[in-house]
Amino acid sequence: MKVAGPQVRTNLARATRTIRDKRARVVEEMADWPQLRAAGAAIKDRALRSLDEQLVALEERVRAAGGEVHWARDAEEANAIVAGLVREAGADEVVKVKSMATDEIGLNDALAAEGIRALETDLAELIVQLAGDRPSHILVPAIHRNRAEIRDLFAAKLGRPDLSDDPAELAGAAREHLRRAFLRARVGVSGANFAVAETGAVCVVESEGNGRMCTTLPEVLITVMGIEKVVCEWRDLEVMLQLLPRSSTGERMNPYTSLWTGVRAGDGPRAFHLVLLDNGRTQTLADPRGREALRCIRCSACLNVCPVYERAGGHAYESVYPGPIGAILTPQLQGLENARELPWASSLCGACYEVCPVAIDIPSLLVHLRARVVEEVGEPAGERATMRALAWTFANPRRFRAAQRMARLGRGALRHLPGPLSGWTLSRELPEVPDQSFREWWATRGK
């Protein structure tokens, strides 16, 4: 687990503060924001309660509109389906819209293993891809990098040593790099923000226009969608498309909102494939308490207010879903035994719940998952022994005072614990042990 260094923390603090302030301003404009938030939660809960019915309805509508639907139980199946569809199209390259689902399944690496190049077209995702890096934020994957770092990266990878660190100039260089790819692409790959069971429509929102290019220019469009992204009715989008842009980018509406239903002769791709991805979502749905995490609309508002995320950085979560939502979503999707530490990656301050546009009670879910980890996975032997020793020490005043005296004698050693405990102090700074405890001071105050 890599914890962010000083420069990354500075970059994160500056970026999250900017997004947080923008969000606050546009939310304050909405007198009915609490009602919208409650409506968003109700819309997602309704779809989750009848998820089997909604997915079957979605499949029927997509096929009736000329699209094809594929079901994938896990990442391996989803990657195989997409690779097969790209080969069928006779292509060895795809252009991609920013997609958490494809990051989750490791699609780019899977396609590369099949000799297929996946080109990220979202600016931040392109930066991450060129750097051979990993995303550190749901909305802004390259949030841990500043303008100077991006300028140096473009100079090295795009052959543009002439660039300054002006954002407009950097964006122009990326646009020039991507334009040729858009025009030659035969296959586009996207995720989905929402899909409507009633109509079969799929929705992608974005701010740069690259998504519109990927979903309209190629001959074949493949959408990989987590099964929890379905909503029941067309009118549900009225609520969701007010909540999402305000909570994610701090905008009243996204500059580009793309909706498509199947295929239409002479307009857009000639073939559309929808890949419905489970990959742990069904097992998450099986937990009556934990399933609330599936309401998430990937706005990233919880990351932007989280003190732990701001200090640790997104890479510390070792998941494509960092921050508070990642701490409750990743353990359920991957299995508690594979991400047992994440439910403890929180101070339980509650800021994430306050800003969540679909009212996910993240602090309560973290406590719920902590209990499940202890009950189902168990505590590490060393941690259990340490906690028992501490409980034994704290339970008796005489033992506690003796421990305080020993701590004063070993001040330097406590700052750098030895052996298997050394990892704990590498990422934590222990407070100085005082020369005198409060009780000792109290006993001598009148003397």
Your description of this structure?
The protein has helices at residues 6-28, 33-49, 51-64, 75-88, 100-104, 107-113, 123-131, 147-157, 167-184, 210-216, 236-248, 281-285, 301-305, 307-312, 323-334, 351-355, 362-377, 381-394, 397-409, 411-415, 422-426, 438-444, and strands at residues 68-72, 93-96, 117-120, 187-190, 194-196, 202-206, 220-226, 230-231, 256-260, 271-277. 52% of the residues lie in helices and 10% in strands. It has a six-stranded parallel beta sheet, with helices on both faces. A four-stranded mixed beta sheet has the order 8-5-6-9, with helices on both faces. The protein contains 22 helices and ten strands. A hairpin with a 5-residue loop joins strand 5 (194-196) and strand 6 (202-206). With 447 residues, it is an alpha/beta fold. Helix 8 (147-157) crosses helix 9 and helix 15 packs parallel to helix 17. It is globular. It starts with 5 loop residues before the first helix and ends with a helix. The mean pLDDT is 92.
Main sheet properties? 6 strands, parallel
Q: Span between N and C termini?
A: 51 Å
Radius of gyration: 25 Å
Q: Based on helices, strands and strand pairing, what is the structural class?
A: alpha/beta
What's the overall average pLDDT, rounded? 92
Q: Bin the helical content.
A: 40-55%
Query: Which outline best applies?
Result: globular
β content, as a range? 5-15%
Report low-confidence residues grouped into runs of 5 or more: none
Strand runs, count:
10
Number of helices: 22
Strand order of the largest sheet: 1-10-7-4-2-3
